[in-house]
Specification:
Length: about 625
């Protein structure tokens, strides 16, 4: 009996001890949990307060800096203020990210739906991404379903924030190529006033490795930190984006191929306020952008004399066109020998000398000039024109005796900066302030449809659509002859001369915006330099065919955007008249889509000579969106 009593006491003691230990552990866990919650709340409060405290002086700084930008006329001061503006907005963006992150963690971020205009939202987003992309030379493609309802109900600010984060990331991590911004929708079958808004952003950037996908939405964690250390940011953008989408009942989907690019997409449900369609947003936005102020030269120098040496006529045309408004007196030479003769007869203020030329290249030409006792330009700055923008290029050309170098395709802004740097200061003058900037021409719509051309980037390099149009005409006039000469060198096996001519083709292609084809030409230029006959045999004819195909697409430039080539299928006079009648009827009814379709039929057929002039004028009106005058023309 006593033994049973002892055993019972031992069991009860053990239970009491276990219960006590468990109670102590639970209390400790509760304390730890409470401390963790308190610490998290303290951290969020600290981040929130800190962000607010920092943002206040930043806003004041940016506001005062804006007044400097508006009111100062000193160039150095404006340059410093511009740098402050860029750095200030970067800092403000980081602080805003931290503030948003702290709000989300504290559960204080709210979704506030309002009525909003989709086109207005898209305008803000498009302007933002275009501005950022232009600075990096990236192309932007907009694809917006014309049937999407214009008036929607949702949290416009958060929708815009999400898309801005995605677009900004796409530009940050893309070095060449472009961004495709697509907006589409699906009707919700179970609702009469809701749609699923579908947004995707596709880039040709660095892509994401499979093992790094998990890091994409981690706070303060950046993918491939060493590789991307020069890209600003906190690593919060995608985490905030995903959190905001979760709060709106959606999620961010990512598809990526490392080294080739990524696609970020999401679908978000929005109420429809009004079923009026958004219409052809891409065309409307393009028209808006093309109405921006035209090019204005940064200086004039009517007393300055410049010599430009290049064996490619198109490059000489580009150079003269870019500087037409500066009034600089430009002489040209198409070979090293001609350049030497001119340099021995006249003193120039600056000489631009192409590197790759047949017989005597730019480096050889400069070396001969340096030794020539009759050279009148021993103290003149020499700038090398080159398509080889590689690391160490500057040092190479400086060592060869050049004062500087300028890459091709020539950037109009960089060219003007270089002239202002090297021309004698007394010959450089401020342009007339009251002179109205040149109004930019409307490029024919078919130019934008030529898939080989990156028109936006090419226009940016040229400075204006006016110069770009001149260059397109010069290319079309010159490219066929250039290809024929290159073919002759290829057939005779003269690889040294072939390399020079392919170099010229590459330069012309890149100048008009055919960058992919230009890169292909670069590969063949390198093969010719190495006498790699196998690569040349495999691909040279492909380059010739691609150039001729591009030239054929652009041949309509000679007739103002209209072609009546005999190789095209024919139309009779009666068929053309019938098309004219239908186009006139659609113009009266404002059916612009049908007008463009029928006009495209005219462009792609061979029409009778008696109808050519009217067809040309009709195409010109359509390209300039001057639909009101179509009934009068065809009446």
């Amino acid at each position: 009996m006593f033994a049973v009593l002892v055993a019972t006491i031992v069991i009860l003691a053990r239970l009491f001890i276990n219960y006590s230990i468990k109670s102590i552990k639970e209390k400790e866990m509760t304390d730890i949990s409470e401390r963790a919650v308190a610490a998290s709340e303290a951290k969020s409060a600290f981040l929130s307060n800190m962000s607010h405290e920092i943002r206040t002086p930043i806003n004041a700084m940016l506001g005062l800096n804006e007044m400097i930008l508006r009111e100062s006329s000193d160039k150095d001061t404006l340059s410093y203020a511009s740098g402050i503006d860029t750095a200030g907005h970067t800092l403000l963006g980081i602080v805003n990210d931290i503030l948003d992150f702290s709000k989300i963690e504290a559960g204080k971020m709210e979704i506030i739906p309002v009525d909003y205009s989709l086109s207005s939202t898209l305008n803000d987003l498009s302007n933002m991404v275009y501005t950022r992309a232009e600075k990096k030379g990236l192309s932007i493609t907009l694809k917006v379903d014309k049937h999407i309802p214009e008036k929607l109900h949702g949290d416009e600010i958060r929708v815009k924030q999400v898309i801005t984060n995605i677009l900004t990331n796409a530009v940050k991590y893309t070095e060449k190529g472009g961004i495709t911004f697509k907006v589409d929708y699906d009707i919700v079958p179970t609702s009469s006033n809701e749609i699923d808004l579908k947004v995707s952003v596709k880039d040709t950037g660095i892509g994401i490795k499979e093992k790094d996908m998990a890091k994409l939405f981690s706070e303060f964690d950046r993918i491939e930190e060493k590789r991307n250390r020069n890209i600003e940011g906190t690593g919060l953008g995608m985490a905030i984006t995903q959190s905001l989408l979760f709060m709106m009942g959606s999620e961010l989907k990512v598809e990526s191929v490392y080294g080739k690019g990524s696609t970020f997409s999401f679908t978000i449900r929005q109420k429809v306020v009004e079923w009026k369609e958004i219409g052809d947003y891409e065309k409307t936005y393009k028209e808006t952008r093309e109405k921006k102020p035209g090019y204005k030269e940064r200086f004039v120098a009517p007393e300055a004399d410049v010599l430009v040496v290049d064996d490619t006529p198109l490059n000489l045309t580009v150079f003269k066109s870019l500087l037409k408004k500066t009034q600089v007196r430009i002489e040209t030479a198409e070979s090293g020998e001609t350049a030497i003769r001119k340099a021995c007869r006249k003193t120039y203020d600056i000489v631009f000398l192409d590197h790759m030329m047949p017989e005597m290249d730019g480096i050889e030409t400069l070396a001969k000039l340096k030794k020539d006792k009759d050279n009148k330009n021993k103290k003149t700055p020499f700038v090398c024109l080159t398509a080889n923008a590689i690391s160490g290029a500057r040092e190479k050309y400086i060592e060869a005796g050049f004062d500087d170098y300028l890459t091709k395709p020539i950037d109009s802004a960089r060219l003007e900066e270089m002239l202002m740097q090297y021309l004698p200061p007394e010959k450089v003058h401020e342009p007339e302030e009251d002179e109205v900037p040149e109004e930019e021409v409307q490029l024919p719509e078919f130019i934008y449809k030529i898939e080989e051309l990156d028109v936006d980037t090419a226009v940016k390099n040229c400075g204006s659509t006016n110069v770009y149009e001149e260059i397109l005409h010069a290319f079309e006039d010159n490219i066929d002859e250039c290809v024929r000469e290159t073919e002759d060198y290829y057939k005779t096996g003269a690889t040294a001369e072939l390399a020079v001519k392919v170099h010229a083709i590459k330069s012309e292609l890149r100048t008009i915006g055919a960058f992919k084809l230009g890169d292909f030409a670069q590969t063949l230029e390198d093969a010719a330099k190495k006498d790699d006959k196998k690569t040349l045999e495999q691909h040279m004819n492909e380059l010739f065919a691609s150039c001729r195909k591009l030239s054929e697409k652009m041949s309509v430039l000679k007739t103002g955007g209209f072609s009546n080539s005999e190789e095209l299928p024919p139309l009779t006079e009666a068929e053309v008249d019938s098309l004219f009648d239908r186009i006139r009827s659609h113009a009266i009814n404002y059916d612009f889509e049908q007008i463009e379709e029928l006009t495209e039929t005219l462009r792609t057929h061979n029409i009778p000579v008696r109808k050519v002039e009217k067809a040309k004028e009709l195409c010109r009106l359509v390209d300039n969106f001057d639909y009101d005058r179509i009934p009068e023309l065809l009446g």
